Amino acid sequence: MSKRGNQLQNKGKRGSRRAAAERAGGSKRTSSKSKGKSAKDAKPPSAFRKWLKRIVLWGGGAAVLGVIFLAVAVGFAARELPSFYQLKATQNAQTILVRARDGTEIVELGPSFGEWLAYEEIPKNMTNAMIAVEDRRYHSHYGIDPIRLTGAIIEGVTGSRARLGGTSTITQQLARNLFLNSNRTVDRKAREAVLAMALEWKFSKEQILELYLNKVYFGGGAYGIDSASRKFFSHPAKELSVAEASIIAGLVKAPSRYSPTADVDAAVARAKTVLRLMKEQKYITAEEASVDVSAVNLRQQSGQNSVRYFTDWALPQLDLLLPETYEPIEVWTTLDVGMQRAATASIDANTPDGSQGALVSLDRDGAILAMVGGTDYVESNYNRATNAMRQPGSSWKLFVYLAALEAGYTPDDRVVDTPVTIDGWTPRNSSGRNVGETSLRTSFAFSINTVAAQLGNEVGFGTVASMARRFGVTTPISTFPSMVLGSSEVRLIDMTRAFAAVSARGKAVEPYGILRVTSADGEVIYKHEKATETTLVPDYVAAGITDLLQSAVATGTGRAAQIGRPVAGKTGTTSSNKDGWFVGFSSGVTTGVWMGRDDAKRVSGLQGGRAPAQAFAAYMRYAVKDRPVEKFDTDLNLPEWQLEPDDEFLYGDPDDYYFIDEQGNLVEPGRREAESDVPFGIEGERTEPSGAEEPPQAASDDFLEQATGQNLPPDPGAPGDGPRRDPPPPPARQDRTGQEGLISIN
Predict the structure, then answer these.
(1) Cα angle 448, 451, 455; round to 5
(2) Which has the higher per-residue pLDDT, 114 or 216?
(3) I want to staple 334 with a disulfide (CB 3.0 to 4.6 A). Which of 144, 201, 367, 486 is the partner?
(4) Residues 343, 349, 353, 356, Cα dihedral to 10°
(5) Is pLDDT above 60 for 695?
(6) What are phi and psi of 394, to 5 degrees?
(7) How confident is the model over 164-192, as a mean pLDDT?
């Protein structure tokens, strides 16, 4: 082939390759264009789908881990749970049965568990009622109810309260009662759920129901259906009817609100709801559901209100009287049920509206017969009889006059009611006037302030304070002059104790409320022993103050306290009528009454001689009705130093004295010779034998006159107007310290 042909051939090959390349390029461009168009048409996956996919994956993983963790937690909890028999034996606190002095049961405190009933012994109506109202899917869940839990979550979001039950199943409630507290926290609810599933894991449904029905709290200290049945219906739980079972089952939701002893109507309405649910869940028929719940016979509760003031005061003393024990005990107290009712009624009937009243009543040995600390324990459990500190007003004058009587005064002594100022303090009488000279008895009966102030000033305000301490006042006592009118705050029980000591003729009285304590099997653990007798004041002082106290009721400010037999007592009213008091005694029973407002504001018309004295009389008529009438011992057997002196007392019978004759010999009493040459006449005249030299006088006439309080006859040989025959003036009466009284006596 020629060169040119070769060139043409090569040129043709290049053209063919170019054409092939162009065809290939065109095809490539076409393919690229087509590919770009497809990529443009396809949408990328959304962010929501990406996160949803992640959540599903992560959530599933977390759920698996959670299930594993929950299973492990439940397994460990089930392993650590006590056995069924250990849980049966668990008792959380001590049961205390309180009895009155005659053995009457007045209150039961602390948990009462009753008789333990096995599952087979529990009435079927009781288990059905509890499941119907508390956990309708009890037999199908494993400790927690997913449906109720979901409903609770929805309620939390929407704020709805349409469901009847709570979120806790019976098993969860049992777990909470056995192991947890009632705090509404997420942590506590989580632990409750774990423990509930552990209980379901370890025990059967029947065992869980047995534990629950024997331990759940039904109010009033009753734990378990047997205790509740005995408390509310006075019979064992084995005898529960459908209506009674519905009442008990209805208590679990709110024991205090639905208690038949607190609100019968609320308990009946709740029981009807339980019966309706039992009918809806096919546990009972329509006829059984229509039972009249209001016809159920409830146990009568006596003294459950005001008696708690007494038990709140007495039972804490068990910590000092008994060794530490958690066994059930019975406490026999000094309380008289009838007197407690009478005391409560007297306070309710006489306390002014908007005020509070309190009463304490003691037997002659200090045993508390009745105690009322307020008008309503449920409304306010503050015990005004033992804890409140209030000014006693004129009832405090008991200590002023006790101090005066001990210093030498008698009820018949004359004193003067006159204006007086002591260290810048000027007391005034409630009447606004002064009566002048009067007797000590009258000044006490009519509560004359100026006389009390003078007496306190004379005997000493510290002496009055010491007398109050001696008689049992435990609160701080001021020694300012105004203290004689009751400016120092005291407790009602202390004032009542002081008056009881007067009733006991000056012997100390210690209030007490517990006679004995026995174990459940009757063994005596503690018995009250009679206190050692302590004399506070002499008999004549006790007799004198009793005379004054009796006069205050018979003719003075306490006339409203008369009850048809001898009564001794004293009224007390503070400034602006903030407090009213009456404390007194009769036939061995001493009772103190206080009335006023807790905020110490004025009470219109409140005076010790009115409402408090009337409440005292209303109570005491019942308290002493079966006791013999006792007259008070007011005879004053005064000591020799206090007897009124007279001429015979000063000189005495010559035969009653030892005598030294002229030779210095001792002549015993009664052996002086009648024919003595040296007679000693009762008028004090003395003659000497004629021719005898008179011995020098051992003491001056001034000294002898001052010592004897008499005018001696003048010396016959001395200058003067002759012998003085003026009658001697009576000596100034002195107190036990030898100081003359400051009250003027005309």
Answers:
(1) 140
(2) 216
(3) 367
(4) 0
(5) no
(6) -70, -10
(7) 74
